[in-house]
Write the structure tokens for this entry.
Amino acid sequence: MLCDSMGLHEEEGVGLCVDDIPHILKGCVPDRYEFSPHKSITPDHPMFIASPSLKDKIHCVAYVLDINSISSITSKEVAKFKEVQKEVLNCGTALVVLLTKIDKCSEILQDNFLNMNNSMTSQSQIIKVSKMLDIPIYNIFMVENYASELELDPLKDTLILFVLRQMLRIVDDILEDLPLETGNLAPFPLLS
Ligand SMILES: Nc1nc2c(ncn2[C@@H]2O[C@H](COP(=O)(O)OP(=O)(O)OP(=O)(O)O)[C@@H](O)[C@H]2O)c(=O)[nH]1
Ligand SMILES: [Mg+2]
């Protein structure tokens, strides 16, 4: 399941409330809950999920950034991203960055996939983001989204699906390290 959230904003009281983030990550916030930028959900809210199961939790957080606007990210925004990262780390959730609007998908796909970060400009942006947010380069990906196209583009699709598969692999690694919870992970009935 993919969940989209309100964007982060450098000002307090605008965009997603950072205090909501640990609750979202742990799976305590129900579907269709209406977020307020001013006030986070609290455990006494009637819709609050007090005992979330593994499937309610967030397994991978993706920061989506426009590759052309990396230089204009302010220090206040970086501070907010890092605040979120602290919560993500506390919850043992995976974190990746998706750089969008690359608009030269074919150039990236001309390289061997394993070397897809070697295209010079993209590589320098990846390194910039990695240093700025303290996120390893192997967790930073590039995608080109559909914006105005009417037809499907196999090159865009290939890159998007490649990145999605990498995200699933990262999550898989984390899930493998979790202790088995009966009814959550066990694919077959446990024999005792
Ligand atoms: N050319 C191009 N346009 C893109 C790409 N990704 C997004 N866009 C366009 O950028 C605009 C904003 O995209 P959104 O996905 O709404 O961005 P957002 O950050 O979720 O915006 P909010 O939800 O309003 O905070 C839209 O007009 C998209 O079509 C991309 O990879 N290439
Ligand atoms: Mg959006």
